[in-house]
Design a protein that fits this description.
1200 residues, 35 strands, 35 helices, Calcium-transporting ATPase, cytoplasmic transduction domain A, transport, cell membrane, alpha+beta, eight-stranded antiparallel β-sheet, ATP binding, nucleotide-binding
């Protein structure tokens, strides 16, 4: 709230004279709106000059104008980033392991866990540091930009970050406001300017702002510099749209129309002057840069669950080994050997402590079962994978010249798990491009002329004499009750009104532009602005004759209760019909005011504007009183066309198993018509309407009856409005709230589609939250394009914003932004499906390869007396997850396409195969775990049995323990890498490079590591081991044989899967008939040759068949086509097949036909509903033979 303190006697004509002001401390007096004390405000001295020349000016301390959106600085980056990273449980766990290795005498070097942890921390720090550097660079571009400050009657150029509160700033056309300014003066005579707030809320429509009334004449640097004034305003707060103002004579009140926000752009105005009131991080734009709540995907929850399992495995291994070690040492013949230099006294002292340190040592030895590098790989996969969505050319829109945008890469895989889609209607399913269709005035309809003879608009009734005044009143209401402004044509060569330039309309509402384009000078006194709660707006004007009129327009539900009821009926008929046709409707009303009534309204509005507490509620009360007892004039109909392919997209989502709910603020009839047009509701869908037109005394018995009577085979839809929803979610005290809510939820979950109309923004979020918190926690997605959709976008698991005409507030607060609703199809069915499959495979693969890695280490302890002797060299322990096996799975998780993208988009049912987190359930997890255990056993015992032959080399020498571990490790690396190669369906040069390159790098590294004597190593235990190992023919044979044995189950599964897919392709060539008897009853697969003569395929595969066909088996019946208009028989009537008899005897099982199936054959119908009798000649001989082959006896042959 802002208060501009000015003396009522200021000489406005003298632009250079100082304007005398009242002392600032007078603001605390009770004369200001009756408030005794004002708190939470700040005082701004314009131009840094004190109000009184005798007062000493002490500059107040406000923040500077620097914008800081970055998280780190050069000095705090390292400690702050490390603190944030070690807050993650996995990183903290590996830090503890590293410290244990440093403190306790462990069998492995601290490098083995320290280096992988360092790699993960470094990569994450580099990524976060780079992102923060981009934010620093963006901040510097804003902070270092040049602005002009008026000082000492002249302009001084400064950097934007040096602006202080109280500075007078000059902004020119097409420049961005550097801070939040109080609008003082403009180059326009009327003291107005136009701005766009696209960077704030995305609304590209021009908004009109007004200068302070007393300073509009100060249009020069000298005049504005001579201004002496004080502004009192509320403390910074992030609300972009509500600025409470205070007024009391002789003070001047300021409102949102006087405040120019940082980030907005000046348009259609040469220049303006403003005083800075909020700067830097206290501007509204900066205060709106707050992080959204962190959303966790289902994959992340599965990872945490799997980690707990593997952590339990780790603890159990360490416990078993620790226990068995002391059991083994309890036998004096199995005590530790002398070379361990452990005396009996040392062994006996601090035995509990030694057991604990041994337990920690085993934990360190087996800790690689927890995949430390998985987190950084998953993070890199999500970060890099998000670019594929942004680069998708099919999701680029030529109209707005923009493509898809990823704001949150952490939810890529969640796109493949969506179960419920909540969508807005206007601007999401429709184009939000309004076209005036018709209007209704005093019960008579008017629309565009379609006759070229008379040239007049058509009406649906005779014109009456009094209609003329009503028509003029209606058009005046449309001309006055709006916020449309005229944007004048640009001047060319000093000429105004250039023939090639045209004036255009600008407004904050596209509906109003459509009405004004389709429609004497008045004095505008008051504007009662539109808001989503009131759902209407009003203006109070004074005519040239001195009459005072209030014009109001809004939704019918908002206007009808406030007009005289006898005037409603005729107009309501037109409004309902237009709504059923899918048009957006607005009702128009007026009220003539007396001078006394206007004075009362004016006084109440001024008092409400002065209020410091509950200002909005007091303003709404004045509006409510002023808009009572009006006269209804008429209504308008504006068409909002469906977006391209919105119907096809909804059909695809339904086919993919998703349930689509439409949440809109429109009236029920309009929304219902749109839902039919976009195929949310089918003609066969049975609708249950819960609206005020039904009795409010609906009891729970009715709901329970509906729940129990519905079956999953029948499609039901639900329609509910906001008021009914409030009764259900927030019932009165004498009702049982939980019962109604639970019953309502049961009904909704059984519906295939739900329409919620007349919804407030918070109600949309309530609906999403209600479904999200149901049993099973289904994955929800919300999509919308306007600011009223932000609440449900933030509430859903995945939020999608559409870059529409209602602004970018939805896209700014969303996880993903797309240009059009149709792009949702590919985003979910293709990208979502693939991302889920990729990351699910990545997670399972990481656990699998680490289990393969550490199980031989565990088994080795049984053969070394549980002495904590490592099986692998420290270099292999360190490099396994970092270099040898990380890049192939990363490339797989970025590039794999197990199914072609076009196939995924065209066949939505493939989406259901991976829904409900199918690939990360316990069953596939156990499969991967058992596979890893099986291969780990093969690795170890395969090499163990190889070592049963004491002579493996040509010279008769035997291999040592490090050679044993190297052979196991070699089989391990090749097996897990080739396993990934077997799983890869989509090969690119990148896959080939990383898979074969990783194997080549391992071989090269092993030769290099074992071929050099490293001076920093105390022991050269791997020297020449790898090269020496490969000199044995037995080793080569063992490696190849063990790799084949390990991969044989996978190869066998792939062969069987390919055979099954081929059989499936053959079955897909069969005609699939589903015969209905009230509900799905029988499914019959017949060869195409049996369907139509010549093997032609009938376009309709699903036909309804009545029960008489089964009740009278002796009659001949044919089943009609399910979609008669689009399915006409391509053959003459004599080729129609007749079923002469329906046998009740079971049929022998042949091929695809199940035993005991009652066979009904589809015949060509006439397109009429029901079952009818036809006659036709018998089938050809070859067809009869085919029928006999499939088990059709003579009784099944066609009759005459």
């Amino acid at each position: 709230m802002c208060l501009f303190v000015l003396c009522a006697g200021a000489d406005k004509a003298n632009r250079t004279s100082k304007i005398q002001l009242f002392p600032t401390n007078s603001l605390v007096h009770s004369e200001c709106a009756g408030e005794e004390k004002r708190v939470g405000t700040r005082t701004v001295v314009v131009g840094h000059r004190p109000v009184s020349e005798t007062d000493a000016y002490v500059a107040q301390k406000f923040c500077d104008n620097r914008i800081v959106s970055s998280k780190y600085t050069l000095w705090n980056f390292l400690p702050k980033n490390l603190f944030e990273q070690f807050r993650r449980i996995a990183n903290f766990y590996f830090l503890i392991i590293f410290l244990v290795q440093v403190i306790v005498d462990t069998p492995t070097s601290p490098v083995t866990s320290g280096l992988p942890l360092f790699f993960v921390i470094t990569v994450t720090a580099i990524k976060q540091g780079y992102e923060d550097w981009l934010r620093h660079r963006a901040d510097n571009e804003v902070n270092k930009s040049n602005v002009f400050i008026v000082e000492n009657a002249k302009q001084v150029q400064k950097e934007s970050e040096k602006i202080k509160v109280g500075d007078i700033v000059e902004v020119k056309a097409d420049e961005t406001f550097p801070c939040d300014l109080i609008f003082l003066a403009s180059s326009s005579i009327d003291g107005t300017c136009y701005v766009t707030t696209a960077s704030l809320d995305g609304e590209s429509n021009f908004k009109t702002h007004y200068a302070v009334r007393d300073t509009t004449v100060l249009c020069t640097d000298e005049a504005i510099d001579a201004l002496t004034a004080t502004i009192e305003c509320e403390q910074p707060q992030p609300d972009l749209y509500n600025n409470n103002v205070i007024t009391s004579f002789p003070f001047r009140s300021l409102g949102p129309e006087n405040l120019l926000l940082k980030g907005a752009t000046l348009k259609n105005t040469k220049k303006i002057y403003g005083v800075a009131v909020y700067t830097g991080m206290e501007t509204k734009m900066a205060l709106n840069y707050q992080g959204k709540s962190q959303k966790r995907s289902a994959v992340e929850k599965s990872i945490n669950a799997f980690l707990i399992v593997y952590l339990c495995i780790l603890l159990s291994k360490a416990t078993v080994c620790t226990t068995l070690k002391y059991v083994w040492q309890s036998n004096p013949f199995n005590d530790e050997p002398w070379y361990n230099e452990k005396t009996k006294k040392e062994r006996d002292t601090f035995k509990v402590l030694r057991m604990f340190t041994d337990f920690l040592s085993f934990m360190v030895l087996f800790n690689f079962i927890i995949p430390v590098s998985m987190y950084v790989t998953v993070e890199m996969q999500k970060f890099l994978g998000s670019f594929f969505i942004s680069w998708d050319k099919e999701m680029y829109d030529e109209e707005i010249k923009e493509g898809a945008l990823v704001n949150t890469s952490d939810l890529n895989e969640e796109l493949g798990q969506v179960e419920y889609v909540f969508t807005d209607k206007t601007g999401t399913l429709t184009e939000n491009s309004m076209e005036f269709i018709e209007c209704c005035i005093d019960g008579h309809k008017y629309k565009d002329c379609i006759s070229e003879v008379d040239g007049f608009s058509q009406t649906d009734g005779p014109l009456k004499y009094y209609g003329k005044s009503r028509e003029e009143l209606f058009l005046r209401a449309l001309c006055l009750c709006h916020t449309v402004q005229i944007k004048e044509a640009d001047q060319v060569d000093g000429l105004i009104g250039h023939p090639e330039r045209k004036d255009t309309y600008i407004s904050s509402s596209p509906d109003e532009i459509a009405l004004v384009k389709g429609a004497e000078k008045y004095q505008l006194l008051h504007v009662l602005n539109f808001d989503p709660v009131r759902r209407r707006m009003s203006v109070i004007v004074r005519t040239t004759t001195g009459k005072l009129l209030l014009f109001c327009k809004g939704a019918d539900s908002s206007i009808f209760p406030r007009v005289q009821q006898e005037e409603i009926q005729q107009t309501k008929v037109h409004v309902d019909r237009n709504a059923m046709d899918g048009y957006r409707t607005l009702c128009v009303a007026f009220k003539e005011l007396t001078q006394k009534e206007y004075d009362k309204i004016d006084r109440q509005l001024n008092e409400a504007k002065m209020a410091l507490q509950d200002r909005e509620e007091k303003m709404a009360k004045v509006f409510e009183d002023a808009e009572a007892d009006m006269h209804l004039i008429g209504a308008t109909a504006v068409e909002d066309r469906l977006q391209e392919q919105s119907a096809e997209t909804i059909e695809a989502l339904h086919a993919a198993g998703m349930k689509v709910w439409v949440l809109t603020g429109d009236k029920m009839e309009t929304a219902k018509s749109t839902c039919y047009a976009c195929r949310l509701f089918q003609t066969s869908t049975e609708l249950l309407e819960l609206t005020p037109s039904y009795r409010l005394e609906i009891k729970s018995d009715f709901f329970l009856l509906c729940c129990r009577s519905w079956t999953l085979s029948q499609e039901y839809g639900l329609i509910i409005d906001g008021s009914t929803l409030s009764l259900i979610l927030n019932p009165s005290q004498d009702s049982s709230p939980s019962n109604y809510k639970n019953i309502f939820l049961q009904i909704c979950l059984k519906c295939t589609a739900v329409l919620c109309c007349r919804m407030a923004p918070l109600q949309k979020a309530q609906i999403v939250r209600m479904v999200k918190n149901t049993k099973g926690s289904p994955i929800t997605l919300s999509i919308g394009d306007g600011a009223n959709d932000v609440s449900m976008i933030l509430e859903a698991h995945v939020g999608i914003g559409i870059k529409g005409k209602e602004g970018r507030q939805a896209s700014r607060n969303s996880d993903y932004a797309v240009p059009k609703f149709k792009h949702l199809r590919k985003l979910l069915l293709a990208h979502g499906h693939l991302y889920y499959v990729r990351i699910a495979h990545l997670v399972q693969y990481f656990f699998y390869k680490n289990l393969c890695f550490i199980l031989p280490q565990f088994l080795y302890q049984f053969f070394c007396g549980f002495s904590q002797q490592p099986l692998y060299d420290a270099a292999y322990l360190t490099m396994y997850n970092i270099c040898f096996t990380s890049l192939p799975i990363l490339a797989y998780s970025l590039l794999e396409q197990h199914i072609n993208i076009d196939t995924l988009t065209s066949d939505p049912q493939l989406y259901m195969k991976v829904s409900d987190n199918a690939m990360l359930q316990w069953r596939p997890f156990l499969y991967w775990t058992f596979l890893g255990a099986f291969e780990g056993l093969v690795f170890f015992f395969g090499v163990y049995f190889l070592f049963q032959n004491s002579s493996l080399e040509d010279n008769g020498k035997v291999f040592g323990n490090w050679t044993f571990g190297t052979i196991v490790f070699t089989v391990l690396v090749f097996t897990v890498t080739l396993k990934l190669a077997l799983d890869t369906r989509f090969w690119t040069w990148m896959n080939h490079f990383v898979i074969w390159g990783s194997l080549a790098f391992y071989v090269f590294f092993s030769f290099f590591w074992g071929g050099v004597i490293w001076p920093f190593l105390k022991q050269q235990r791997m020297y020449f081991v790898f090269a020496h190992m490969l000199t044995s023919v037995s080793t080569w044979l063992a490696i190849v044989l063990l790799i084949f044995i390990s991969l044989f189950p996978e190869i066998l599964l792939i062969v069987l899967k390919n055979i099954r897919e081929k059989n499936h392709q053959v079955r897909n060539k069969m005609m699939h008939y589903t015969v209905f008897l009230g509900r799905p009853l029988l499914t019959l697969h017949l060869p195409l040759a049996l369907c139509l003569p010549g093997g032609a395929e009938h376009p309709c595969s699903t036909v309804p068949l009545g029960s008489p066909a089964l009740a009278h088996p002796s009659r001949a019946y044919t089943a009609p086509c399910a979609s008669p208009p689009s399915c006409s028989p391509p053959f003459p009537l004599q080729h129609q097949r007749v079923l002469s008899q329906v046998s009740t005897q079971p049929i022998a099982s042949h091929g695809l036909l199940p035993s005991g199936l009652h066979i009904l054959r589809q015949l060509w119908g006439t397109g009429q509903q029901g079952v009818h009798r036809v006659s036709s000649p018998p089938l050809p001989a070859n067809t009869q033979q085919m029928l006999a082959f499939w088990g059709f006896g003579p009784g099944w042959l066609p009759g005459r």
